[in-house]
Amino acid sequence: MIRRFVEGMKQRDSRRFFFTYLAGKMVGTIAVLAVIGGLAWYFGGHAGAQETTETPQVAVEALTNVINPINTMWVLVTAFLVFFMQAGFMMLEAGFARTRETTNILLECIADTALCGILFWAVGFAFMFGTGNGWIGWTNFFLADAPATYGTTGVAFLAFWLFQFAFADTCSTITSGAMVGRTGFKGDLLYSVGVSAFIYPIIGHWIWGPGGWLATMDTPFRDFAGSTVVHTVGGLIALTGAIALGPRIGRKFKRDGGAMMVGHDMTIAAVGGVILWFGWYGFNPGSTLSAMDFEGMGRVAANTTLAAAAGALIAMFVVYFRTKTWDTGITVNGFLAGLVAITAPCYWVNPLGAVLIGGIAAIVCILGIDFIEWLRVDDPIGAVAVHGFCGIWGTLAIGFFATGDFGVPGPAGADTSTGVVTGLFYGGGTDQLKAQFIGSFVVCAVTLAVGFALMYAVKATRTLRISEAGELEGIDIHEHGGSAYHPEFAFMGSGAPGTPVSGASTPPTD
Known about the structure:
globular, two-stranded antiparallel sheet, Ammonium transporter fold, about 500 residues, mainly alpha, 16 helices
């Protein structure tokens, strides 16, 4: 290269081109430096000094005009993910149920979603997120007088409403899981009104609403994304419903020499479970309400993944050592248990904590299913153990595993101005654990009390459970006039398991 340069410089035209090109480069460089210097002088000199009193306010407004739309878009995208969890619930419940119950499950989930949307628009959001006192909100009924953004979040008000509606819908759907196969459709609509319009939003206000009394204790009760607000509440209401209903006809419990009725389709159950796992990436990371908190979003998503993975593996191996079989259903419930448990602490724990929380949740889930079976409560999906019991564990886990490195998310990113959350295992003492225990205990006690009151009130109307004849016929046929499947494969007999379908060569699986 050097030799070519020397040979080229011996030629007149080459020398002229080189020096012309070099001079042009130098002039351009000097011009750029002059412009930079001039701008620096202008903004740092007298003209800039005259605007110092206005520039900070202008800068804040400009920043807000960028941050708020970005945060709103993030919340909307995660709201869509949470809403898609309804597809997962429909498939999970249908797969764990019998063929005769499938249409009923599908329509219940659709109707509950639609009903929750109207109720959360009319009164639910106002009770939960409206301005009021520490116990209940009382503004923004029918979303009236809504400001442009919600509170200090900077998120568009209606985008925030949509995100929270998806959470309310999840709680209502959890409730139906333990009541599969024998709940009358009219009764389902009635108790859904109670859950979506009153129980969920009022209890939720204590924790997530402005000035909620549990959130404003000396050591605030913490629930980042809903282990208590959504899952414990939904799971315990499901328990009260299952008790009020009684078991399905023919259900024989383990202590009486029986076993769980087998779900009819593990394919759609497993796919439904994975869809729920996918939707949880809206549920947990979306609860930052801020795309600016990129470190928090990443941590929450990673912790969510690790807890689910640990829950799946622990559940699979524990049941294998019990039964010497690799059980798909309990593995699905294992990763769901991990997801439920990590929902409350996901922002405040590290990856190791997430693995431990998810693994312990799987054991809680298995023991919870055993306990519900021992009580002779018919819970076809395992909703009480997965959501109720693991929700309680996840709530308490904050008091053990919170690392003390993280505060709360804010519109512009992580905010430690109000302090950090530290658990017992990281030198925080028992203060946070006590707050978690108080909050969980109060929510459990109140949920059970109002849940029993609601379910037995609906039962008094004689709409909670279908008739014996209707249940034997099959709730899909009796309540909805048709099966979810082609009659060749659906249960269409008199009600006795194994009754052949007319014209079919083999009995249906039911």
